[in-house]
Amino acid sequence: MPFANNQRITRRRSSAGPTPPKRPIGNNSESFGRQAQGPRPTFLTLRDHGKVFVADLPNLSDGQLAHISKEANEVLNSLEKRLSDLENEPNVSNPENDTLIKASTKRDVTLRFIKSIEEEQEHRKNNPALRDAASESLPRTFLEVARHRLPGATFDSLLREALEACAVDESTKENQVIDEPKETVKIMDIPSSNTNASLVVSIDSSDDSKNDSI
Q: Annotated region Disordered: where (predicted)?
């Protein structure tokens, strides 16, 4: 018998398991975006270098680290002065003030950034691998420094190129034929009055040399 309202009714099977909870679409997309991005990397915007990330500090030279540390301390001093002025203002002393919150957050980020620079500088001074390489030879010391300064892909590419150049040089030396004079040994019978004939062995440095008569 056909349905009067022409609508099909479907029932969910009991073996399909429990019904998953329904979440709001807007909140789900926002939470997914936060999970996909992860924690924001720590960086500091400086006057001469622009954005400098903490992850890039190992790739910088000692001079660059010193210059960046100087700029970061200048930013910190400016922020502390700004915070002091804001706290002294009667209208801005409210803890929920946006300007005060932003300045405090930037000061905390700057402090973490300066601490990361100091840790990197301390690590370079007390690096046992670098000290061992320095006590052995200059090439190994240079290799150790390059391994820490250069990005992984760049270091591997340069090392592979150097190894290939050394391999070509070794194969060239093996293919070279070195002509050296060959020594020849000649045995001559010398007649003698004795019953037993004596043998004299002479060694010539070349095939063209003539035997001296004895």
A: 1-42
